[in-house]
TrEMBL record, chain A:
SUPFAM superfamilies: Periplasmic binding protein-like II. It comes from the Archaea. Residues 31-69 are annotated as: Disordered. Residues 40-51 have a biased composition (Gly residues). Keywords: Signal. This is Family 1 extracellular solute-binding protein. It comes from Halogeometricum pallidum JCM 14848.
From TrEMBL, chain B:
One of its GO terms (cellular component) is plasma membrane. SUPFAM superfamilies: MetI-like (SSF161098). InterPro entries: MetI-like, MetI-like_sf. The chain crosses the membrane at residues 21-45, 65-89, 101-124, 144-165, 196-217, 247-266, 295-321, 341-364, 380-401, 413-430, 466-486, 492-509, 521-540. It is a multi-pass membrane protein. GO terms for biological process: transmembrane transport. It comes from the Archaea. Pfam families: BPD_transp_1 (PF00528). It is found in: Cell inner membrane; Cell membrane. This is ABC transporter. Residues 66-263, 339-538 form the ABC transmembrane type-1 domain.
């Protein structure tokens, strides 16, 4: 661990130090929590809120959620009531956490009920496209902006009113056909026993040439988030540079995994020195194994720093659009945003609400400027990946 | 195996036994129904322009996946026969200790969803896997689990029960007195097996082998996890893109179906009706005494179960114990009602599928006509249709198309309803029931039916009193296969399930998709346990005395 190396990623020092030395800072990991969780899998800290604050219902507990005070944003109490019945298609759904939130909303209002169906993001989008105007769905809430845009591009969505989208930064509602509800940053989980933060290049394009990373990297090319990342690279750097980058990574002996949780897990296990993954997977591994030698690095201003969004849109065939708009506002309420931040470790979409665990804020991350709706242009990306032999 | 030709009247009555028009129409209607989703494939692929289609199909990747898919299917099928046939013989014809237990255990791997089986093997034997780490200090290195070897191994371990169950059904319909006769002629058991038993169980073995081959080329989960490039992996990737990707996926699915048709044509040459049966009802007594090899055989059967059941269950248990917030977090808890939903849908599907399969199997088993063969083969195509592709086809049909063609009420009634889901299952799994039923029909001694007719029974009565009881092991085996595969079916279920109808598998998907493996462990164990319990009546329904 070289102190100097933390310069660029000072914001993550708490995360790394807690894991390695047990000197947990405020908002970092506490080893005591680890002792409590132990190996018996009692599952401490998975449910329930911290008593005594206004977010008790919604805020997660556990090491990453501790020490958070009140946050900004619009409280649910200040929103119109939810009243009526909604059919909601979930793309993904964070292992049931989205259903968990829906159940909380239902519990808050006597007159509100919902039907939720979930499938994979692209399955759900393909289903909506095949249903067309015959869809029973009012809302599509998906963990990938590309799937939201794919449905919107077919003209199947209603424009969201300004009181829904205004609290959210513009890049997360590019054409108001959908709005981001939680951010998911691309990141580089790395093993702190094998590498120091400075070994991870600042530019994602330099990865194939890095001596330190040769034969020690992992990725998940069939995973949607990775394909979105390559799509972003193609849009920013061009097809040729992307092809070269993919070839370079293959030449550098990158290993393939089935999804990015497994990549992050393999980094924590020392099977890999570093990998490409969405940021929250590493946080989940850390939350479960605070002593794992795992930290996150971020590249700067390029595809490696892409922030994709989970988001929601309202179907134009819905006969219940007003209720659907109010529902989306609930997803952007302070309570729901705190829920996403502390339970899924996502980036809140409301600037007044900070991310957990000492993560850099969206502004500090310096994501590339790219229209997230264009992440649905996966086809040329796939052709390119196939050409190179990555798929 | 030629019967005494002296009974002219019996012969004439046997000719009557050629299936009647009603059976033919029913069989053809079933085939047409299960082929109907293919229409959507044609519509979907027609949106591609010809040049793009040709370039996709002739690209390096397309050729590679074609070869890879065929190689994988061949290896898995051969290995499944090597594993499934001896286990079936051991559990049916020998004095193996605890036969019923081994029968259930040998069939049970079928209930392990491939995404769980493959995941367990990667967790155990992959780099830094639990068992790999355990064995490494002992100097035992494990070759990589990824690629052809690992994929073939895992698929074999979890699909050989197809061969086991269909072979078992054939053996149960097999007339043991023939074996006795062969042995009085001084044939050793292996010799008698080759000359007497094998020809008669061949239709059963090939029916199972065909199911294995087709399952292998249509399976999504295993090749993806074990990193082996086959059709389904590429189709999956295409479906994850939008726009042209949807048409590409459709085109690749059609190519997959073409390969399936090829395999079906190949099988009808190899597999045969050579043994068009004249067996009498099976005998119930144990045929072969293993002597002191009984325990060796039991150990071998146990060894197989170790890899197919103990290992995945152990790995799941490990995830369960390991679970902290990272693995074990996530939303709403597992509820027993999910298991009830699974059993309900699977039982319903098993019943409907057997009803659908009966006319097809009976027609194919009784008629030599080319049309009968065509009808029977046609029912196999849906089996190779990737579940996602089938699901999306039915979405289009039952929402947009049905609304425009019939009316909004009809669409609301059908779309996302349980009957639609069951229909999708039938399309996918009908061949499992057709195959084993047909081989049982082939095994029925026609002289018996002739005798019944001679005694004045109507064809219908002869069917009910003679044929039906004789083919019941085949029907039950078919029902068991369909039940088990429906229990674990994921892709179609996710797309078509009635809203709010959570099953064990959709729950597992929900938590596992987000990486909460700890929460997937308990429902996966429930899935295996519930399926296992359900198998006991299904398997003991056969004439198993053990």
């Amino acid at each position: 661990m070289t102190e100097r190396r933390y310069g660029r990623r000072r914001v993550l020092a708490g995360l790394g130090a807690a894991g390695l030395s047990g000197l947990a800072g405020c908002g970092g990991f506490t080893p005591e929590q680890n002792e409590a969780t132990g190996t018996d899998g009692a599952g401490n800290g998975t449910v329930g809120g911290t008593a005594g604050d206004s977010f008790g219902e919604f805020r997660g507990s556990g090491p990453l959620a501790e020490g958070r005070g009140d946050v900004g944003g619009t409280a649910i109490a200040d929103l119109p009531d939810l009243s009526g019945e909604l059919t909601i298609y979930l793309g993904g759904g964070e292992g049931g956490l989205y259903r968990d939130l829906l159940a909380r909303f239902e519990g808050m209002y006597d007159d509100f009920s919902y039907n939720a169906r979930e499938s994979g993001t692209s399955d759900a989008a393909n289903t909506l496209i095949n249903e067309g105007s015959a869809t029973p769905a009012d809302v599509f809430w998906s963990v990938d902006a590309g799937s939201l845009a794919a449905v919107a591009n077919r003209g199947l969505t209603a424009k969201l009113p300004s009181n829904v989208v205004d609290p959210v930064p513009d890049e997360f509602h590019p054409d108001d056909q959908w709005v981001g509800t939680a951010g998911r940053a691309r990141a580089v989980p790395y093993n702190t026993s094998a590498l120091s933060g400075g070994d991870v290049p600042d530019s994602v394009m330099e990865f194939p040439n890095s001596e330190a990373l040769a034969n020690a990297m992992g990725w998940a090319p069939t995973y949607g988030a990775f394909q979105a990342f390559v799509t972003a690279m193609r849009l920013i750097e061009g097809a040729d540079a992307t092809r070269q980058w993919l070839r370079g990574m293959l030449d550098a002996g990158v290993s393939e995994y089935n999804n990015e949780f497994l990549v992050s897990n393999a980094v924590a296990d020392g099977e890999l020195d570093a990998g490409f993954a969405n940021h929250y997977y590493a946080l989940r591994v850390k939350a479960s194994r605070p002593n794992a030698p795992l930290d996150l690095a971020f590249t700067s201003g390029d595809a490696g720093a892409l922030i994709n969004a989970a988001g929601a849109e309202v179907l134009s065939a819905s006969g219940n659009q007003e209720l659907a708009f109010t529902f989306v506002r609930h997803l952007l309420s302070a309570e729901a945003q705190e829920f996403f931040a502390t339970r899924t470790y996502a980036y809140p979409m409301i600037p007044d609400i900070p991310p957990v665990g000492g993560l850099p804020t969206i502004d500090e991350l310096n994501p590339p400027s790219i229209d997230l709706s264009r992440l649905s242009e996966i086809q040329p990306t796939l052709e390119l990946m196939r050409d190179v032999g990555v798929l | 195996m030629v019967s005494d030709g002296g009974f002219g009247r019996v012969r004439r009555l046997l000719d009557d036994d050629e299936p009647g028009t009603a059976v033919v129409v029913l069989a053809a209607a079933v085939a047409a129904a299960v082929l109907s989703p293919l229409v959507w494939l044609l519509v979907g692929a027609s949106s591609l322009d010809a040049d793009a289609a040709v370039s996709l199909l002739t690209s390096g990747t397309a050729t590679t996946v074609l070869v890879n898919s065929l190689v994988l299917a061949a290896v898995v099928t051969a290995a499944s026969v090597v594993l499934g046939v001896p286990l079936a013989v051991l559990t049916v014809q020998t004095d193996l200790p605890f036969r019923r237990l081994w029968t259930v255990l040998a069939a049970l791997p079928l209930v392990v969803p491939s995404y769980i089986g493959a995941f367990a093997y990667v967790s155990a034997f992959g780099p830094s896997g639990a068992l790999a780490d355990l064995l490494a200090p002992l100097g035992i290195g494990i070759p990589t689990v990824y690629g052809l070897g690992g994929t073939a191994l895992v698929l074999t371990l979890f699909t050989y029960p197809y061969v086991f169950l269909t072979t078992r059904a054939s053996l149960l319909s097999f007339d043991a007195t023939q074996l006795e006769a062969a042995r009085t002629l001084n044939h050793t058991y292996p010799e008698a097996f080759r000359r007497v038993i094998l020809p008669q169980i061949a239709p059963g073995v090939t029916a199972g082998a065909l199911l294995v081959a087709l399952y292998t080329i249509s399976d999504f989960g295993t090749p993806a996890i074990m990193r082996y490039d086959v059709f389904t992996r590429v189709i999956y990737v295409e479906l994850n893109s939008f726009g042209v990707g949807r048409a590409n996926a459709t085109l690749l699915s059609m190519q997959l179906l073409a390969v399936t048709a090829l395999i079906l044509a190949l099988e009808s040459r190899v597999g045969g009706d050579a043994a068009a049966g004249y067996g009498t009802p099976s005998s119930v007594e144990t045929v072969v005494s293993l002597g002191r090899f009984r325990w060796v055989a039991a150990a071998a059967a146990g060894g197989v179960s170790l890899f197919t059941l103990a290992l995945p269950v152990g790995i799941l248990g490990m995830w369960l114990v390991r679970s902290g917030p990272g693995y074990g977090g996530g939303g709403l808890a597992f509820h027993p009602a999910f298991a009830a939903n699974s059993v309900y849908a699977a039982a319903l599907t098993a019943g409907v599928t057997v009803l659908f399969a009966l006319p097809v199997a009976y027609y194919a088993g009784r008629s030599e006509s080319a049309f009968a063969a065509l009808v029977e083969r046609a029912t196999y195509l849906g089996y190779a249709m990737p579940g996602v592709v089938l699901g999306l086809a039915l979405v289009f049909f039952s929402s947009q198309w049905l609304r425009d063609a019939v009316g909004p009420t009809a669409a609301q009634l059908v779309y996302q309803s349980l009957p639609l889901l069951v229909f999708a299952y039938v399309v996918r799994f009908l061949p499992q029931a057709v195959g084993s039923t047909r081989s049982s029909v082939l095994g029925v001694d026609r002289d018996l039916i002739g005798a019944a007719r001679l005694l004045g029974a109507s064809p219908r009565r002869a069917f009910r009193r003679v044929t039906l009881p004789l083919i019941s092991p085949g029907l039950l085996a078919g029902a068991a296969l369909v039940f088990l595969t429906t229990m674990k079916e994921l892709d179609t279920t996710l797309i078509l399930h009635p809203t709010g109808f959570t099953t064990i598998v959709t729950y597992i998907w929900r938590v596992q998709e987000a990486g909460y493996y700890g929460r997937a462990a308990l429902p996966a164990l429930v899935l295996i346990a519930v399926s296992g319990l359900s198998m006991i009546p299904l398997l003991s329904g056969g004439r198993d005395d053990a």
